[in-house]
Specification:
The chain is 5% helix and 39% strand. The protein is mainly beta. The protein has one domain. Strands 1, 4, 5, 6, 7, 8, 9, 10 and 11 form a nine-stranded antiparallel beta sheet that branches. A two-stranded antiparallel sheet has the order 2-3. The protein has a two-stranded antiparallel sheet with strand order 12-13. The relative contact order is 0.19.
Protein backbone atom coordinates (compact mmCIF):
# COMPACT_ATOMS: atom_id res chain seq x y z
CA UNK A 1 0.00 0.00 0.00
CA UNK A 2 1.55 3.36 -0.97
CA UNK A 3 2.49 5.90 1.72
CA UNK A 4 -0.17 8.49 2.52
CA UNK A 5 0.31 11.93 1.00
CA UNK A 6 1.25 14.64 3.52
CA UNK A 7 -1.73 16.60 2.16
CA UNK A 8 -4.22 13.73 2.56
CA UNK A 9 -7.29 14.44 4.70
CA UNK A 10 -7.35 12.88 8.15
CA UNK A 11 -9.30 12.94 11.41
CA UNK A 12 -8.90 16.10 13.48
CA UNK A 13 -9.08 16.01 17.27
CA UNK A 14 -7.47 17.61 20.30
CA UNK A 15 -4.43 15.75 21.57
CA UNK A 16 -4.97 14.04 24.95
CA UNK A 17 -3.90 15.88 28.07
CA UNK A 18 -4.17 19.45 29.34
CA UNK A 19 -3.87 22.44 27.02
CA UNK A 20 -1.65 25.17 28.52
CA UNK A 21 -1.31 28.42 26.58
CA UNK A 22 1.81 30.47 26.03
CA UNK A 23 5.42 30.01 24.97
CA UNK A 24 7.96 28.56 27.39
CA UNK A 25 11.24 29.16 25.53
CA UNK A 26 12.60 30.34 22.18
CA UNK A 27 15.84 30.06 20.21
CA UNK A 28 16.96 31.78 17.00
CA UNK A 29 19.55 31.08 14.32
CA UNK A 30 20.70 32.60 11.06
CA UNK A 31 18.47 31.30 8.28
CA UNK A 32 21.53 30.80 6.09
CA UNK A 33 22.98 28.38 8.67
CA UNK A 34 20.25 25.78 7.98
CA UNK A 35 21.42 23.21 5.45
CA UNK A 36 19.47 20.52 3.56
CA UNK A 37 16.18 22.12 4.57
CA UNK A 38 13.11 19.95 3.75
CA UNK A 39 10.92 22.33 1.75
CA UNK A 40 8.32 19.70 0.80
CA UNK A 41 7.07 16.48 2.34
CA UNK A 42 5.41 16.05 5.72
CA UNK A 43 4.84 19.24 7.72
CA UNK A 44 6.69 17.95 10.83
CA UNK A 45 10.48 17.94 10.58
CA UNK A 46 12.41 15.09 12.20
CA UNK A 47 15.82 16.78 12.37
CA UNK A 48 17.38 20.09 11.33
CA UNK A 49 21.04 20.44 10.41
CA UNK A 50 23.15 23.56 10.86
CA UNK A 51 26.41 24.22 9.06
CA UNK A 52 29.54 23.23 11.06
CA UNK A 53 30.27 25.71 13.84
CA UNK A 54 26.79 27.24 13.85
CA UNK A 55 24.43 27.18 16.85
CA UNK A 56 21.01 28.20 18.03
CA UNK A 57 20.90 31.16 20.42
CA UNK A 58 18.57 31.59 23.39
CA UNK A 59 16.01 34.39 23.33
CA UNK A 60 15.26 34.76 27.04
CA UNK A 61 12.37 37.21 27.28
CA UNK A 62 10.38 38.42 30.27
CA UNK A 63 8.17 35.59 31.49
CA UNK A 64 4.75 35.55 29.88
CA UNK A 65 5.49 38.22 27.25
CA UNK A 66 6.27 36.05 24.21
CA UNK A 67 3.38 35.59 21.82
CA UNK A 68 3.13 33.91 18.42
CA UNK A 69 0.44 34.44 15.79
CA UNK A 70 0.11 32.75 12.40
CA UNK A 71 -2.41 34.32 10.02
CA UNK A 72 -3.36 32.89 6.61
CA UNK A 73 -3.16 35.25 3.63
CA UNK A 74 -5.26 34.55 0.53
CA UNK A 75 -3.15 34.85 -2.62
CA UNK A 76 -6.05 34.08 -4.97
CA UNK A 77 -5.13 31.61 -7.67
CA UNK A 78 -1.61 31.43 -6.20
CA UNK A 79 -2.94 29.73 -3.07
CA UNK A 80 -2.28 30.74 0.54
CA UNK A 81 0.70 32.07 2.44
CA UNK A 82 1.07 32.52 6.19
CA UNK A 83 2.00 35.75 7.95
CA UNK A 84 4.28 34.94 10.88
CA UNK A 85 4.56 37.24 13.89
CA UNK A 86 6.32 36.76 17.21
CA UNK A 87 6.55 39.44 19.89
CA UNK A 88 8.09 39.65 23.32
CA UNK A 89 9.92 41.83 25.84
CA UNK A 90 13.54 41.85 26.94
CA UNK A 91 13.86 43.61 30.30
CA UNK A 92 16.62 45.71 31.83
CA UNK A 93 18.92 47.53 29.44
CA UNK A 94 22.60 46.64 29.60
CA UNK A 95 25.61 47.19 27.35
CA UNK A 96 25.74 43.47 26.57
CA UNK A 97 22.04 43.32 25.64
CA UNK A 98 22.26 46.42 23.43
CA UNK A 99 25.27 44.95 21.64
CA UNK A 100 23.44 41.68 21.05
CA UNK A 101 20.42 43.51 19.65
CA UNK A 102 22.56 45.54 17.27
CA UNK A 103 24.01 42.29 15.90
CA UNK A 104 20.47 41.21 14.91
CA UNK A 105 19.80 44.27 12.75
CA UNK A 106 19.30 43.29 9.11
CA UNK A 107 19.77 39.57 9.79
CA UNK A 108 17.60 36.90 8.17
CA UNK A 109 16.52 34.59 10.99
CA UNK A 110 14.60 31.43 11.82
CA UNK A 111 13.18 30.64 15.24
CA UNK A 112 12.34 27.56 17.28
CA UNK A 113 9.87 27.90 20.11
CA UNK A 114 8.57 25.43 22.69
CA UNK A 115 5.11 25.98 24.13
CA UNK A 116 3.93 25.03 27.61
CA UNK A 117 2.50 21.77 26.24
CA UNK A 118 6.02 20.72 25.21
CA UNK A 119 5.42 21.15 21.47
CA UNK A 120 8.20 22.68 19.37
CA UNK A 121 7.73 24.56 16.11
CA UNK A 122 10.07 26.13 13.55
CA UNK A 123 9.01 29.56 12.29
CA UNK A 124 10.64 30.89 9.13
CA UNK A 125 12.70 29.08 6.49
CA UNK A 126 16.01 29.70 4.73
CA UNK A 127 14.11 31.07 1.71
CA UNK A 128 11.44 32.90 3.76
CA UNK A 129 13.23 34.12 6.91
CA UNK A 130 12.08 36.35 9.75
CA UNK A 131 13.16 39.97 10.23
CA UNK A 132 13.93 41.40 13.68
CA UNK A 133 12.94 44.84 15.01
CA UNK A 134 12.94 46.21 18.56
CA UNK A 135 11.96 49.40 20.34
CA UNK A 136 13.41 50.66 23.63
CA UNK A 137 11.46 52.36 26.42
CA UNK A 138 13.41 53.70 29.41
CA UNK A 139 10.28 53.64 31.57
CA UNK A 140 9.17 56.15 34.19
CA UNK A 141 9.84 55.83 37.90
CA UNK A 142 6.77 57.85 38.94
CA UNK A 143 4.56 55.44 37.00
CA UNK A 144 6.33 52.36 38.35
CA UNK A 145 7.59 51.46 34.87
CA UNK A 146 10.80 49.55 34.19
CA UNK A 147 12.99 49.85 31.13
CA UNK A 148 12.70 47.22 28.43
CA UNK A 149 13.02 46.38 24.75
CA UNK A 150 9.87 45.25 22.94
CA UNK A 151 10.90 42.99 20.06
CA UNK A 152 9.12 41.69 16.97
CA UNK A 153 9.96 38.99 14.44
CA UNK A 154 7.98 39.17 11.18
CA UNK A 155 7.90 37.01 8.07
CA UNK A 156 5.72 35.28 5.52
CA UNK A 157 5.98 31.60 4.60
CA UNK A 158 4.29 29.40 1.97
CA UNK A 159 3.49 26.74 4.57
CA UNK A 160 2.42 26.75 8.20
CA UNK A 161 4.99 26.73 10.99
CA UNK A 162 6.77 23.37 10.95
CA UNK A 163 6.38 21.12 14.02
CA UNK A 164 9.87 20.00 15.06
CA UNK A 165 10.64 16.59 16.57
CA UNK A 166 14.43 16.65 16.74
CA UNK A 167 17.25 18.16 18.81
CA UNK A 168 19.19 21.40 18.50
CA UNK A 169 22.56 22.61 19.75
CA UNK A 170 22.41 25.84 21.75
CA UNK A 171 25.33 28.22 22.16
CA UNK A 172 26.67 27.70 25.72
CA UNK A 173 23.53 25.71 26.48
CA UNK A 174 24.10 22.11 25.39
CA UNK A 175 21.75 19.82 23.52
CA UNK A 176 18.05 20.70 23.70
CA UNK A 177 15.30 18.11 23.18
CA UNK A 178 12.07 18.66 21.31
CA UNK A 179 8.75 16.97 21.97
CA UNK A 180 9.72 13.99 19.81
CA UNK A 181 7.45 11.01 19.47
CA UNK A 182 8.06 9.43 22.90
CA UNK A 183 5.66 11.64 24.85
CA UNK A 184 6.35 14.14 27.61
CA UNK A 185 6.15 14.39 31.39
CA UNK A 186 4.51 17.52 32.84
CA UNK A 187 5.66 18.64 36.31
CA UNK A 188 2.98 20.57 38.18
CA UNK A 189 2.40 22.02 41.62
CA UNK A 190 -0.52 20.67 43.66
CA UNK A 191 -2.37 23.80 42.53
CA UNK A 192 -1.95 22.78 38.90
CA UNK A 193 0.76 25.28 37.88
CA UNK A 194 3.12 23.87 35.22
CA UNK A 195 6.74 23.82 36.44
CA UNK A 196 8.30 22.07 33.45
CA UNK A 197 7.58 19.81 30.50
CA UNK A 198 10.18 17.03 30.21
CA UNK A 199 10.61 14.56 27.31
CA UNK A 200 9.85 11.03 28.44
CA UNK A 201 12.99 9.07 29.33
CA UNK A 202 15.02 12.12 30.37
CA UNK A 203 16.45 12.67 33.87
CA UNK A 204 14.85 15.29 36.15
CA UNK A 205 17.30 17.08 38.47
CA UNK A 206 15.86 19.06 41.42
CA UNK A 207 18.19 22.00 42.14
CA UNK A 208 16.14 23.60 44.93
CA UNK A 209 17.56 23.45 48.42
CA UNK A 210 14.15 22.60 49.84
CA UNK A 211 12.66 19.16 50.25
CA UNK A 212 10.11 18.23 47.62
CA UNK A 213 7.26 15.76 47.81
CA UNK A 214 5.95 14.30 44.57
CA UNK A 215 3.28 12.03 43.19
CA UNK A 216 3.41 10.14 39.89
CA UNK A 217 0.08 9.70 38.12
Amino acid sequence: MPDASPYELRNLAQAPGDNVGGIEAAWYALASDLVSFPVGGELPIDQLTLRPGASWYQLVSTRGTVRYKQTPKDLGRHGTSYAQKLTGTLARHSAELAQGLEALEGQALVLLYRDHNGQVQLVGTPAQPLAWTDAYDAGEISAGQRNNYDWTLLGETPRRARPYLGTWQVSSGGLQLGAGTGGTIVLRTTGGRVLAVVPAGKTIILTSGFQAGYQIS
